[in-house]
Amino acid sequence: MKTKFFPYLSLILVCWLTTSAAIIAQNAATLLESAKSEFKKDYATQDMAQAAQNLRRALATAPNNPEIHYFLANALDRVNAANASWVASSNRIKVAEISQHLERCISLTPRYAGEKLSLDPYSKLGAVWGALAMGYLAQNLPDSARWAFQQGKSRGAYLDPQLELCRNLLNSCSKNAVLFCSGDNFSYPLFYLQTTENFRNDVQIVDVNLLNSDWYCLYLAQHASNTLLREGLSIDAIPNLVSWKTGLVSTKINSGPCGKVKNFEWDIPQLMNGDFLLRSEYILLQFILGNQFDHEVFFTIGFSKDDLLYLDNHLEFGVLVQRLNPCMSQVQKGAADYLRNYSITSLPKSQSAIYYSTDLVNQLNFYRIGYANAIFQLIELGKLDDAKALMAAMESRIPTDVVPLFSATLGDYIARLKESLNR
Fold it and tell me: What are phi and psi of 248, to 5 degrees?
């Protein structure tokens, strides 16, 4: 009798275990979706503490789910960021916990395939350790800042091809230039190079996105050159919204290649916020007006027209940077000139290390866009031999089997350029 009953007992046990596993997986998925919904709400109505709690519960039943680790890291980061001054007072315990979840996500799936917020796991890892480092710099603790940046790199952030790209970016800037950057994938690697390698510390880096943070304005008030601001302007006392009338803006040109032209003016036809400038926009404007071109001004690639305060018609394209040129009628440095001076030697032999980070793939494609635009310029000038040489250089230095194309549109553009060269 016992022998006949045993198979039924085993079957019941298997069914129970299978059903229990399915229920657990369903519960974890439900908790994950609930947490994701918080990220889709307006910032003011998000409850990241509740999202983090749900994700911890989900992780208890599904510890090897990379998407749960990824969203928990982002939820914990936003809980910390709820306090506007958190970066300057951030502590390594909070950052270490966030980092552990991102590292676990990467170890489970080196090429994360789950739903992504603004940054992939590698970029987010660099952002949380970079924010901690900047907090230390704001407190005049440079040794601690170097430690934080080095921790980020040792855990998987600031990949060598990205750092090489940012070295090329800094070397695109003239001595004692001002470089406005936007986005964590540029800002933190740039700060990493200046802090840990003392690389191009003559360039004044200003992160436009961070200008809306109180702690960063205090940091710039202590460290930025006073010549970059209008006399009497206190950067840390500027409100979040500043009343402003649209129209022509003018400043002097103290130096540069403009000859007898001594004034630079441009039109700001409209503002995104009605009759107001955001604090970040206002400070950017005051930097430009106060500088009066004593220092050359550069922007990293990727700024929108609004973010540039409609300066786009006065920018010289330099592949990784855009140079503010007050006299565009003068001879400009071409994209090919920048590319010839770039060092591109840290790419791996295979695409695996790069392919894992979608953000890095996108960033490295700025090289390819620069080459494509330079080739187009040469074709328009009738310099076909030079264009062919540049096409060969692009395919040799940035092969698609190492750095994949980040969009079909770019691939089609390059294919059309090749057709033009083969006619």
Answer: -70, 140
